[in-house]
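Readers of this paper often ask what the protein records in our data store actually look like. Nothing more is needed to write down the fold, since each code stands for a local backbone conformation. Below, we set out a record of this kind in full and without editing:
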Amino acid sequence: MHPKQIENILDRVLLRVEKPGRYVGGEYNSVIKDWDQTDVKVALAFPDIYDLGMSNLGIMILYDQINQQPDMLAERVFSPWVDMEQIMREDDIPLYSLETKHRIRDFDILGISLPYEQLYTNALNILDLADMPVRSRDRDESYPLVIAGGHSCYNPEPMADFIDAFVIGEGEEIIVEIARTMQKMRGKSRTEQLRAIAQIQGMYVPHFYDVTYHPDGTVESTKPNIPEVPARVLKRIVPILPKPFTRFIVPNIDTVHNRAPIEIMRGCTRGCRFCHAGMVTRPVRERTVQEVIDAIAEIMDNTGYEEISLLSLSSSDYRDVHELVSAVHEQYGEYGLSMSLPSLRIETASADLLDKLGDTRRSGFTFAPEAATEKMRNIINKSVGHEQVLEAARAVYSRGWRTIKFYFMIGHPEETIEDVWAIIDLCKAVLREGQKILGNKANVNVGVSTFIPKPHTPFQWVPQDTREQVLKKQNLLKDQIRGHGLHLRWNNLDESEFEGFLSRGDRRLGRVIERAWELGCKFDAWQDHHWHQKWMQAFEEAGLDPKFYSHREREVDEVFPWDHIDAAVHKKFLVEDYLMSIKGETRVDCRDKCFACGILPKFTDTRSQTPAEAWECPPVKPKSERKRDKTERVSNVTLIP
């Protein structure tokens, strides 16, 4: 179907759908190139609705990287909401790009962002709406090459049947390499194209790897079936963070985050054992203060945004954070620019930082202690003293903030009901501190999620907490965290189960995902659209048990479905950390002491950067001393995000 035909149909049908602005394109700062005069064409898909996808920084960065190339173009596509999808199927409207309304089938590459597992069925739905077979083996060179990237791709196996090639790691540089490779391989067979793609460092092509299983269902091995590909695919990183993206597309409608993000730091050295992002984004790299300040000025000129978010996994660990917030306040305080600095540590200095930003709304302040007892803090390697929390609360309330929001997890390894009671007691104690200062205006909002063991973390061996235990803990929290000033939110138990079996799944889950999609599953991240019974039906029809993936403790020598994916942190380091957690032993911040996790020897070019751009590990101790370290108990250490 020609783009003009698609536009004519849209003129006729868009008034029948909710939020037509999701489907028309033409936003300020969107890039429209001459289709016929541009050689390589890439469609970038975020498999959820426009309102969410337009807030995704990764998509915008890739969009900019490709469109900077004079002979390439990138255009966007998002999942249509159910009302629009129904019309598209009834009127035979193919999935199209927002910029020029070309069919997705007409592009050379379809890049799908998969930051979390709940998007898997939407990814299949996008392929189907684009009139493409959902399985990779059924697509030849006449179809766009389907690639995927994002944090969930560090275990690519559940989606291996549907994606031609996975980007393992960071995409800023590799996306252009992929496009150049496909440009050179145009006219070749799909197998030849995939062979060429597999030569790019950081690319995983499932077609070239075979999986075998033991009789008990565990993975025996994942091995290459051609000699040209590596046994383990090392993740791709960007050694020096590129200039921040500042020419954000201004959306047609309100989105989830109506603000412009600037990533001030990538990676984390805290070593929280549950944190997938903290492990896979190593090593830490930072932007200079001046680079961030210049980026804010460009964003204001380019977009008109009135709110900027300074992003990182641990903002308080940004080396020059005080200098940065002082500079922001000094240069932009009089413009009424609103700034947010998420991921702050629980300390008085965090309130001081936001004071410097000059935020006058004083609406809320967020901390993530994750656990409330010393035992649990040691197990997860995230120590936050009780008095330290209360001191931080007093500092926040005394500066005019009325609400403190806490994030906790339940279901950590070795957790008991007493540990859950400690969450309740801590929240009530914080509220009392607030009431002493603000009276009845003080609030404590509590978000409680269920711990999901993730690949490439020290907890990848542990079983997920059972439904019965999680329900018991949730009911206790609901019964106790209520009344004036206390507000509780918790996550759906079925959704936790769903995320759990997909996170540590193997390639056999492909038939479960496909069958669930055939049964009507999509928008699984939306609570009112998650059909858990259909997923259970899909498991039953596939002859698989979800408990095998979620609730089974792994032996330390088990081969995992993702072991051929190298996140650059040694598995032996993760094993050691897992065994330390069992003993309640902690590690200090690895900026203070190197534990030889393996990251920097694989990316030596990060060591040549100036201190303002990247951390260097402290000197590694001799093996004899490291051996003694393994038996030391590291106690009384504060490890806060």
User: Anything to note?
Assistant: Residues 606-615, 619-641 have pLDDT under 50 and may be disordered.
